[in-house]
From TrEMBL, chains A, B:
Alphabetized UniProt keyword annotations: CBS domain, Cell membrane, Magnesium, Membrane, Metal-binding, Transmembrane, Transmembrane helix, Transport
SUPFAM superfamilies associated with the record: CBS-domain pair (SSF54631), MgtE membrane domain-like (SSF161093), MgtE N-terminal domain-like (SSF158791)
PANTHER family: MAGNESIUM TRANSPORTER MGTE
Membrane topology, as annotated: Multi-pass membrane protein
Superkingdom of the source species: Bacteria
Protein's organism: Oceaniferula marina
Subunit (UniProt): Homodimer.
Main location: membrane
Protein name in UniProt: Magnesium transporter MgtE
Amino acid sequence: MPEDSIILDIEALEAAVESRNVEGFLKAAEELHYADLAAVFENLDDEERSFFTAHISIDRFPEILAELPDTLIEETLERFDAKAQQDILGQLLDDDRADILQDVSAEARQRYLALLQPEDMEATRSLMRYDEDTAGGRMTTQVARITSDMTVKQVLEVLRDDINSTESLARIYVVDDQGHLMGKVRLRHLTFSPWDTPITEIMQEVDITILATADQEEAAQMFSKYDMTVLPVVDEFNHLLGIITHDDVLEILEEESTEDIEKMSGIAGETSEETYLNTSIGTHFKRRFPWLFVLAVLAISSGYVMLRFEHVLSSIFLLALYLPMVVAAGGNTGGQAATMVIRAMSLGELEPGSTFKVILKELSLGLLLGLIMGASIAAITIFILPAFNPQLPEGISYTIFALAVSVSLAVQIAVSTLSGALLPIGARAIKLDPAVVAAPAITTLVDIFGMVIYFTAARTILGL
Amino acid sequence: MPEDSIILDIEALEAAVESRNVEGFLKAAEELHYADLAAVFENLDDEERSFFTAHISIDRFPEILAELPDTLIEETLERFDAKAQQDILGQLLDDDRADILQDVSAEARQRYLALLQPEDMEATRSLMRYDEDTAGGRMTTQVARITSDMTVKQVLEVLRDDINSTESLARIYVVDDQGHLMGKVRLRHLTFSPWDTPITEIMQEVDITILATADQEEAAQMFSKYDMTVLPVVDEFNHLLGIITHDDVLEILEEESTEDIEKMSGIAGETSEETYLNTSIGTHFKRRFPWLFVLAVLAISSGYVMLRFEHVLSSIFLLALYLPMVVAAGGNTGGQAATMVIRAMSLGELEPGSTFKVILKELSLGLLLGLIMGASIAAITIFILPAFNPQLPEGISYTIFALAVSVSLAVQIAVSTLSGALLPIGARAIKLDPAVVAAPAITTLVDIFGMVIYFTAARTILGL
């Protein structure tokens, strides 16, 4: 199997680095993909990394560098002398180069920029104008541009030089003399058309483009909706600025999904580019502590409600048996509703205009879930609870006790489901990321509701 | 802006369908991408759909059909007569056709298969042998195959016929006479090489392939790790069976992320292919109810613990003020830890061998978070609580009360963080999906721990 041979090569590389065996290192490195080399490099200690950078071919290092996490970029580049740095930076794809320069210190950025060829420097500077998480920040400017007055033969001659530039031949774009995007040509049509065919004859219309300032998530949504290979990036005057390719989109999707999932669990701050195990305890701590603290302080409100209802709980302490259930059911239903709504938003399914439909759907669901859950718990209470012979004050039957529990459970579920759907929508309306109000925030909020609903229902129905 | 023009076309299409304006419908449909046409179709009512299928060009419908959710496939195909069905099924890409036939009733499947050309029928049947969520179930067999004894000119002649088959020219694979995969050729190298060049001269090695029986998630991970455009699918003897393309991977990633996110919120069952709003209340209910019910019954254990500690709570009812906080902090930290571990597993970062490292990391984090949270809450209790003049029994100072609360909070956080990390690892070890034991399950479990820890600490430290 091919996968096994990769694992063997990785092990051989690691062994060669550990024993400082140059020949073995070069042989194993030759066999491996740059993504695997980057993964190995990330896991080496300081001296081993020095051995790695001292012996790896300079031609292979740019691709490896582009795969490393942000925090490793500068210290890794500094292992090379200025000449080698110039070679490495010069060989990087221009979108990777711009990303890398955005991740290093200001001092290093100036120094690295000064090493670049004038045209590379200009392209890099113009890419760095865009935020890293916009279409412009993701695009490469290494796109094949031709004009509509050419023939197939002329285009092939122009493109021949680009043959090793991996990002440029999937689609070839036709621009006018001011750089406006006019159309596209596919390599296969160039290949199979007679040499004297005018480009206008095989040129296709470009329906779908994206503004450089648009959010990267929008680019990813367009890619998956329209099954695209390459997405052209334009400015507001329809000048072709660059392209986003499918590998950029895979990165965007992974980043955005991780970000959503983490935010939904109350994990704050930027998603780490490093793997879970390589992220330091300090970073993990800084990302988990803030929400934890805020939620803990908020949870004291739930305790305060409980304190206020001391007399209800003291009258029938058996109420404690169902208290955690009623409270927790709110967190669970609220969390489910929030997840469905947040995911639908992330996939671009919910326009702001559909708020009313969402409310109607979640309200119906909340009532349905509340009714069925309430009825189930009532049945359990009436038929099973008496077998344990628990203490109920005189005048309060199992049935009326079950009614109090079930009504509060049903109300709590309905209220929580609706809250779970509304909170992300509200967050979006005030320009917050919907994901930050997911499960933990909603759970804490509906915990407070749950306490109030439970004790109020008990007091009213049981006449305490 | 191009996006605006798409929105205008969509609105024109919807208006034309509503007013049954055939000419307007055809004009607007002409302008739109099949993904947009499918989205519009999904939102139409029954009569409008009939109008749509009666007038849309049969050549455009296969791509639209492939975008529709599973549940709509059969009823939509049944709107056409057998001749049109034959045209539509014949024009589908073979991986789409296999997917579609797996989504219809057994009766319809036989009928549709009988309409196919013999070679299409054979290809479809062989694809249907693989589960939908394996590499084999995702691949297309429409891949360009050549042999190594050809020249560039011969290859170009063979491929000329494939020019409109969108899935086949990204990579051209070289096989021997038994169909074993030998190498690949890129279209750009064919285009720019002299016609008499032997294929062996421009053939490149294929390092990375995937077994047809491998999970689709593995295919997606390889794509994003190795920045691939096309991933060849082979059997255990290295016969080339098909390819997975980048648009398949986008679908896989979206499906898997949605599935993870939903499972992590206690939503059960298959992820719906329909959008949130188009999924029925019944389906939503069926996916949310099961976990909700199980967790509610489990939560009664928490209540039981509370019932058993009645005397502790009755002695100092002020303990109720912090009870929800201590319990909830467990759910929150446990949820965070579980999320980090589950996501790291999904991204392929955690090998089964790294369990010990994960335990060490989460244990340190749990202790650190517990200590800092405990100290913060102790400070709040000692300096702020007395201002509200709450009742504490004689002989119990604010300091010793704060100590009891803080110690239980710290222990609860440490225990919950570790549980949150261990549960998904344990689930994977017994071949369960780690995502199902996320937030809701962990919260319910650590709620029970929290009650026990809190009341035990209070009883011991406060001498109740």
